[in-house]
Write a structure and sequence with these properties.
The chain has 216 residues and is of the alpha/beta class. It has a domain of 103 residues: P-loop containing nucleotide triphosphate hydrolases (Rossmann fold), CATH 3.40.50. It is built from 9 helices and 7 strands, in the order βαβαααβαβαββααβα. The strands form 2 sheets. Strands 2-3-1-4-7 form a 5-stranded parallel β-sheet, with helices on both faces. β5 and β6 form a beta hairpin. α1 crosses α9. It starts with a strand and ends with a helix. Bound molecules: BIS(adenosine)-5'-pentaphosphate, magnesium ion (MG) and zinc ion (ZN). Zinc ion binds next to loops.
């Protein structure tokens, strides 16, 4: 199964991706997570990406597209994958389509987690993440079981540097201008499915499973 997750920052893409990846045994590929890993390891890619991420801007398309194409050609993607945070511009979406067509493949669906803007700020500013395994928590909606420690791997959870109110507003603006057009891009190709992301985390997951079915 090949899936693209769409939705504004804070919609719950990362949260749902973990569960989808487990249920359907496909790798969860988050471009944001890959960039953050490179930043923490101080690689050339990380140094480049940081210039944009800290201000809520998108990393340039060429950098991002090449990185994703490399990732999709790895062995674990043979039976499908779940893309979280990519594509994020029409140019990226076209590049993904071209990549798939060159391999005679196609996406199963682009799944939009729909959440109105007035929900987003509270979700983002209350988010805490695990720097080791990428798990995402929320101080109110999804707290860790052990105070401040990741449920999955036990690491100390942290707040993302771009989850301040000011940067969140910039990211939302970037989303509206550059990423929202992808909803029509996939709608026009009859590939869009939509779930209501304002429901509780487990209810959103149930709706997603209904759409994805038993998987292939
Ligand atoms: P990225 O890491 O992709 O960030 P994002 O799109 O801004 O999305 P988030 O991770 O903030 O939100 P999410 O939808 O994953 O929500 P989550 O599940 O954590 O990108 C970061 C940066 O990297 C970009 O700004 C850009 O610079 C760069 N980048 C990445 N990809 C790129 C690309 N393709 N091209 C160019 N640049 C790129 O949930 C949010 C919070 O809400 C959590 O606290 C969670 O616990 C809580 N929550 C989740 N679901 C629910 C629910 N149903 N009810 C209540 N609370 C919930
Ligand atoms: Mg995320
Ligand atoms: Zn962890």
């Amino acid at each position: 199964m090949k899936i693209v997750l769409l939705g504004p920052p804070g919609a719950g893409k990362g949260t749902q991706a973990k569960s989808i990846s487990n249920r359907y045994s496909i790798p969860h590929i988050s471009t944001g997570d890959i960039f953050r890993k490179n930043i923490s390891e101080n690689t050339p890619l990380g140094i480049e990406a940081r210039k944009y991420m800290d201000n809520g801007q998108l990393v340039p398309d060429e950098v991002t597209i090449n990185m994703v194409k490399d990732r999709l050609q790895q062995e674990d993607c043979k039976n499908g994958y779940l893309l979280d945070g990519f594509p994020r511009t029409v140019h990226q979406a076209e590049a993904l389509q071209a990549f798939l067509e060159s391999r005679d493949e196609q996406l199963d669906t682009a799944l939009l987690i729909e959440v109105p803007m007035n929900f987003i700020l509270e979700r983002m500013t209350g988010r805490r993440v695990c720097p080791s395994c990428g798990a995402s928590y929320h101080i109110k909606f999804n707290p860790t079981k052990n105070d401040g420690k990741c449920d999955v791997c036990g690491s100390d959870i942290i707040q993302r540097k771009d989850d301040t109110e000011e940067t969140v507003k910039e990211r939302l603006d970037v989303y509206e201008r550059q990423t929202q057009p992808l909803i029509d891009f996939y709608k026009e190709r009859n590939m869009l499915s939509v779930v209501d992301g304002t429901k509780a985390i487990n209810e959103v997951f149930e709706s997603i499973c209904k759409i994805l079915g038993s998987g292939r």
